[in-house]
Amino acid sequence: MTATPGLGAARLASPDLLRAVFRRHAAGVAVITARGDDGPVGFTATSLASVSAEPPLVSFGIGLGASSWPAVSRAGHVGVHVLGEHQEVLAGTFARSGADRFGAPTGWREGPHGVPVLDDVLAWLVCRVVARVPAGDHRLVVAEVVHGDPSGTGRPLLYHQGRFNGLRD
């Protein structure tokens, strides 16, 4: 059994403290996509959350300095893709600045509302953006689900301690 850290080790709030704490938090890995003026855009996100079942709403965060932010800031619809543990390379591609995210070997097609939909994911949604809420150096995007498919096979990809991982039995 692991002991809870003591209060004597508490640190004042800082970006480094937040990063250190969230490295301990395992998160599912998703890729968010949108149609941009110059073609499709996308990024890897670990901030995906279910917000409401009625109506069906999801949220995710995006940094204002992200290369995808200009397109996401104007998009009426976005794609949300839950990645499988077999997609670590894809997650890395969409996380890397300057990468050709939609070039080979990335498989994708145009989905509902012109949103790029990635191939071979565990599940995908196309969502209508309903809010972009200021949140520090990010925006919290809230979107209503309009289409989707949960029928992919495999196990989810996780992000923990700065690395992509799979589930252990």
UniProtKB/TrEMBL annotation:
Keyword Electron transport set for record: no
Q: Which UniProt keywords apply?
A: Oxidoreductase
Every copy of the Flavin reductase like domain together lies at: 22-166
Any keyword Transport? Answer: no
Read off the Pfam families from this record: Flavin_Reduct
Q: What is this protein called?
A: Flavin reductase family protein
